[in-house]
Amino acid sequence: MFELNDLLLAFDFSPSSKRALAYGADLLQRTDARLHLMHVQEVPQGPFQREPRSPVPTYKLEEEFEERCQDALSAHGLDADDRLTFNAERADAVAPALVRYAESKDVGMIAMGTHGRRGVERAFYGSVAEETLRTAPTPVFTVQSPDDEEAAASVERIVAPVDFSNPSRGALQQAGRLATIYEAPLKLVHVVETPDTPSVYGPESPTVTSHKTKEKAETALEDWGSDLAGGELTVSYVVHRGEPAPSILRSAPHETDLIVMATRGLRGVRRAMLGSVTEEVLREANGPVLAARDFPTSD
């Protein structure tokens, strides 16, 4: 059984972080977890940056943060919950501060809203969510701002991309545990990438090869899903041909679809040039995404 003891939620009062709070409140109702609300006041540092002459003391920051949170918490019935912890601090960057706190408190999950950047701006600056995802010691739950502010923050289906690697096996086990918590069906997805082959191979060879691979993948996918939760879960399987990220997104078109997947994060110039399937899914998904470099696996 999946036990979530501590959930760290980055809260900056933006629409996406308020939506993340709604999902966090739902998890608190379904588990015995404690919720750590954290606000990071970003203070850039460098040779041309100066600290304010009279910065507000940290304890005062936390008092103000807790007070500002009350309306949002009341909306989810959490204003009197004794499982809440408030933390506010100054830091030169948000993601490292979140990761340090997560490590110090041994939290089981980080939740946050995301405002994914694109193109050149993203290549240089990235996003807080993506940086947290690449460096966090624990799974990261991300959600974007809703198109409809009244949309329910609920999970009605778990979608688990599987590439038959060890990291994706760990993600699948986590997806099965969450499907039990949410009492939701689980959908396993595998993508067979269509190979680029020279024309001299003949027009049919890639199609024939891809078709045979798809059949093998369908069998393997059912084998991977057969032991989940002792067969108590409702599990479906789909194998797509095409590019991984768009195929995964087509398999989870709804705001109530939770995608659970593993990533090992690329860094530096190589990441800026090639991107990452997980990061593309994170930026484009209609619903929440739970991702980690490595999910724990059970024997």
Provide an overview of this structure:
By secondary structure, the protein is an alpha/beta fold. The protein folds into two domains: 1-150, HUPs (Rossmann fold, 3-Layer(aba) Sandwich), CATH 3.40.50.620; 154-299, HUPs (Rossmann fold, 3-Layer(aba) Sandwich), CATH 3.40.50. The protein is 40% helix and 21% strand. It is built from ten helices and ten strands. It has helices at residues 15-30, 58-74, 94-105, 119-125, 128-135, 166-182, 205-225, 244-251, 268-274, 277-284; strands at 6-10, 34-42, 84-91, 109-114, 140-144, 157-161, 186-192, 235-241, 257-262, 289-292. The protein has a ten-stranded mixed β-sheet with strand order 3-2-1-4-5-10-9-6-7-8, with helices on both faces. Mean pLDDT is 83; it is low at 116-126 and 265-275.
